[in-house]
Amino acid sequence: MDYSDLKHAVTLDNDTLYQIMDDFGNDVWNYAFFLTGSRDHADDISQEVFIKAYQGIHTYRGEASLKTWLITITRNTVHSYRRSRFFRQSLGSKLFSIDDEKTAESSALSSHSRIAPSAESIVMEQHYEDSIWEIIMSLSVKSREVLILALKYEMKIHEIAKILHISEGTVKSRLSRAKEKVQKELGRRAE
User: What Gene3D superfamilies has UniProt attached to this entry (predicted)?
Assistant: First the structure.
């Protein structure tokens, strides 16, 4: 759906809101999860993001894509959420592996190839993918956030810089360090 007309919108009708939620709901939820490490917090934050988008559509100027606008709202909501007492009390220090949907997607992609992969190769691939996400989730929030925006959401350096309110050079250096840490840890685990 083309959302270019939304930059002039004063309000959203329910059908448009549902379409936005359908188109971008997974992106918002996944980003909230990557920042918080909690499925419950990601659920709460996602709901709040779409409420804010519904109530604040008049603030969308169309300077960035609607997805980038929603990701920015998600980031700001996570930061507000982190300051709340509830979040600080309920946040665990556990590392979470990639969710089952990602593993299912990976298996579905593999099943479309001409030669069906062996059960062993599927398990190894899932284990490798889980290890990568575990490493990513163990990075500092700053490193993880830049890496996720670049790799998962395929945002450009200038978009990331705008969302995070940092310079493009800072984005590049954080991204480089984050990739290096992930590769180093993967190498260590492979030994």
Answer: 1.10.1740.10, Winged helix-like DNA-binding domain superfamily/Winged helix DNA-binding domain (1.10.10.10)
